[in-house]
């Protein structure tokens, strides 16, 4: 089974987004999974969490540069999930 690898440079932003989701109780994820090799299930969790953060966070909490990084990662994850599973991911 293939896995999705999140670039080292993006992991800090993803970890910050997961902490934000925890504080705001936006997602069921207790903490970010290991981001070096995501399974489809883990990628779905990351996608749902990042989508919730991008939707709920204010511009002050999530500056545009970070939003753009997370939004791009969400698109990449959705494309990879579609190819890996053959299914369209569900929106949060």
Account of the 3D structure:
The chain is about 60% helix and about 0% strand. The protein has about 90 residues and is an all-alpha fold. The longest helix has 22 residues, at about 65-85. The relative contact order is 0.18. The model has no long low-confidence stretch (mean pLDDT about 90).
Structural features:
92 residues, mainly alpha, 3 helices
Give the overall silhouette.
globular
Assembly state (oligomeric): single chain
> How many helices in DSSP terms?
3
Low-confidence stretches: none
Helix/strand/pairing category: mainly alpha
Question: What layout of secondary structure does this protein have?
Answer:
Elements: H1 8-24, H2 40-56, H3 64-85
In short:
With 92 residues, the protein is an all-alpha fold. It has helices spanning 8-24, 40-56, 64-85. The longest helix is centred in the last third of the chain and has 22 residues, at 64-85.
């Amino acid at each position: 089974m293939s896995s999705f690898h999140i670039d080292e440079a993006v992991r800090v932003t993803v970890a910050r987004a997961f902490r934000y989701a925890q504080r705001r109780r936006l997602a069921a994820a207790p903490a970010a999974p290991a981001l070096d090799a995501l399974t489809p299930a883990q990628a779905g969790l990351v996608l749902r969490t990042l989508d919730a953060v991008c939707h709920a966070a204010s511009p002050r909490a999530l500056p545009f540069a970070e939003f753009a990084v997370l939004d791009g990662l969400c698109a990449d994850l959705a494309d990879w999930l579609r190819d890996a599973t053959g299914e369209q991911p569900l929106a949060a």
